[in-house]
Amino acid sequence: MLQPVPMTADRVKTIADIARIAGVSKATVSRALNDSTLVSAETRERIREIARHHGFEMNATARSLSRRQSNVVALATYPYEPFGPSESSPGFIPGDKLPDTFVLEVMSGLAAGLHARGYDLLVIQIEARDTGWISRYLDSGRVDGFVLMSANCTLKHLEALETRGAPFVVWGLDSTSHAYSTVSGDSYAGGRIATKHLLDSGRRRVAFIGGPDMEQEAQDRYRGYATALRAANVGVDESLVTYGWYSTESAKLRMQELLERHSDIDAVFACSDVMAIAAIEELRARGRRVPEDVAVVGYDDVALAAHTDPPLTTVRQAGPLAGRLLADSLIQQLQTGAVGHVSIPAELVVRESA
Amino acid sequence: MLQPVPMTADRVKTIADIARIAGVSKATVSRALNDSTLVSAETRERIREIARHHGFEMNATARSLSRRQSNVVALATYPYEPFGPSESSPGFIPGDKLPDTFVLEVMSGLAAGLHARGYDLLVIQIEARDTGWISRYLDSGRVDGFVLMSANCTLKHLEALETRGAPFVVWGLDSTSHAYSTVSGDSYAGGRIATKHLLDSGRRRVAFIGGPDMEQEAQDRYRGYATALRAANVGVDESLVTYGWYSTESAKLRMQELLERHSDIDAVFACSDVMAIAAIEELRARGRRVPEDVAVVGYDDVALAAHTDPPLTTVRQAGPLAGRLLADSLIQQLQTGAVGHVSIPAELVVRESA
DNA sequence: TGTCGTTCTGCAACCGGTTGCAAACTAGCA
DNA sequence: TGCTAGTTTGCAACCGGTTGCAGAACGACA
């Protein structure tokens, strides 16, 4: 009884304070603020008015504890390496191919989508070899589920999540055969429209530089490429098709090989902007003008694609939309257990390289 | 007594379970897992071993409720606009100048720094006109503090945070006169080394294209520029100094004006990579070769600076380091109330444009 | 007037940790 | 042996919500 009792009576911090003011019980306040049908409409309004008037914010932690759900989902990222991950870096994940700002776009849509449904976004860093983060975040009740990007995660992660029964969604995988939801870009359509654009401008010898050929994404883009060619009554010349890594070195090498095989190439469809830019450098080094002699289309529409020389024509996927869909899928999964698979449209951004 | 009691006895979910196994009380388990001196070393080890063995993860929510701190901090971002914020977009914040991937770098360091000290990173979106998010996140106990980036926040936000007494740190402001911590790049040093590099390669007519001249950052870079010139016994010619917006249009215009005034310009120091790239375009349009006739240095080292034509020499600030320092500052503030001001070094990345 | 069904409200027991305080135990010392 | 101080431990009351269940209030109907 000696403690100062610093609570200056009017600061409304808990539902108990509101209950006192309204002359009802905590339970009623809780129900009123949660839109329960177990309070009369007038009581509910009266309580809400009091809460509003006092700028009351309910304690989310207590609520989470009680409800046994945090209303937070985690986006798994890996430590960002300014100059790209390398084999020697601890968290190296092979096949990194995300256009850097794409993550930012996705994150934006994700945050917005989650927020709209009462969830918050936690960003965590994971490492290729470790799967401890799963139970560290799930069992501790910090998050209800995860969002992964195919470029930032390994098969190991996906398997661990699946066996653990963790709710999660993945961007960029179209495995309809799994117990998790996916959202991905329509690579087939992307490949098709990119190629069609080149054909429409009169090109006939269109080379294809893909990402690693074992990846579904590269295959889908190739299918789109082939479809467009056939639709234009241009045969698919397999010797114009090549696969490499998403790096400038690899792309230059592929471009070089292609030119040696076929000096008559008049267009290139590269599966990433970085590859496209490298291809342009190589083409120029060998005396070709872009786009006059050879038109080039990239993929991703990274930030500076608009400022390269020449500005790059490329295929873009709406990151914010992807994020929004990831949010929707995950929340649906959390609430109903249903998994789904969506793909978002690819859009051609025409600039000057083709 | 009829309920199925599905708890398959061995699933250890709470400290009570561990207490039962260890034959001690909840209190003792709590103390053991928190490294309290109020448990004997051997009891502590025994309990920790049990916890480890059962893969126990303590419920973070309950802990937060009890401790009245969430161990989460929020990074305030604004909805990402793929093509840059525009006046007409709802969340428009003037003066956006962040190199896009810089946010990602900062976020990476921030997440790592926070994690190392037991905190998690929440990403929230705020709007220029709204300040409701402050109490929405703070009063609800979801987060303990905020991290802002000067480009993503308005004075209004800072003031609201200050009057509200919210703990927060800001990147990119060096207001030593405020009640919050700051971390920023060493713009003075950046301006100096960029200019020195140009002078060292024999250039003497070095133009300066700054960001908005009312910004501290632009002023600091100018001071660095002037210092380098004087150190090389080259006078500062104010007519070579100009300020604009961080946009291609603005930069082109400035470059054009400069060339009209001085056809003998042999170098340009631009205060952002986007400006530098625009300047290069303008220089070329007027028949200058880069870097042969005019050398150009940018600022920021955005993602594709390495892939522009020619690859851009620029000044970079280590984003991950900035993030780490932001984490440290904020946590220090949370724990001790102390505010501080740090600046991180600027580093010249020499490529081919200068 | 008695009984029953609705609708609304409150009691109190959770959720899973933390922590002040008292008690038990040990050792040291007169 | 008795007393004090220091170390470990447990009890129980929190933190601030949610929710099952019992009961009150009220109108309807017999």
Task: Tag the structure with descriptive keywords.
354 residues; six-stranded parallel β-sheet; elongated; DNA-binding
**Number of helical segments with 4 or more residues of chain A:** 12
* Overall average residue pLDDT of chain A: 89
Structural class based on helices, strands and sheet pairing of chain A: alpha/beta
Rg of chain A, nearest Å: 26 Å
Low-confidence stretches of chain A: 1-9, 83-98
Query: What is the H/E order of chain A?
Result: HHHHEHEHEHEEHEHEHEHEEHEE
Give the distance, in angstroms, between the N- and C-terminal Cα atoms of chain A.
81 Å
Oligomer: homodimer
Largest interface: A-B, 56 and 56 residues
The biggest beta sheet of chain A reads:
6 strands, parallel
- Give the % helix of chain A: 40-55%
- Principal-axis shape of chain A: elongated
> Quick one: how many beta strands of chain A?
12
Strand order of the largest sheet of chain A: 2-1-3-4-5-11
Percent of residues of chain A in beta strands? 15-25%
